[in-house]
Amino acid sequence: MERGYEDRFIELDTSWLQTSHVDEFISTIVLPDDPCGIAIIQASPSLAIERLNQAMPQDFIGASSEILESTEAWNHLWNVYMALHQQADFYPKPTTMYSNLNGSAEAYLKLIRGQASLQAIINEQTQRLSAQILKSRPQCKDLKIGKVPMLYFCDGDDVYRTKKRSCNGLIPNATNFQSLRYHVVMADPVMPRYRASIRDTLIELGQVPHFLDATPYFLRNGGIHCGSNTLRLSNDFLRRDLLK
Question: Is there a domain that residue 140 lies in?
């Protein structure tokens, strides 16, 4: 606050996340040509479920990362897909990652139903952030919000119904990224339909998406921003023609 951030910061609810990092569900990107100058990128469990409903079995052939393809997280995503489509071809019960998911349709249907309550939390926090941005930046009355597919697993019994949760990403997190003026570097969400959805969202915002394999960070509950950062300089020192 002593450095000029009074009325320009907000504390969002991250108590439902195991890592308690805000960029596990929301972040902002730079929009140099927009009056507001920024846009919100919001994780969307609802969009993730919608894209899984539209998916085909071939969407799961050949993960972008051989490491991820061999992990239980990839198996869990397939199991969620199977539960959505009322199929029984489940991978066996995992032994370490997300051990509460017991390889049954009931467990995955519970996870699917639980995404709605998490979406409600994310929507509420997004509204709070939007209001705070508008308060400090009147030019943001038409603030853009982009949604990217994301699924979460919450450990414990009935955690989706209570305020006490311990949630982690079930897939690499697309809100944990680096914004580089006209470019966004983010974790590859693996599924083609997820990747296409994110690409469409960013292109609509005038951004160029770059997907990187962030599996080593993901397996430790992290993402792109966990392993990198940027030095942001004044516009006076930036060559726009070199950054496009």
Answer: yes
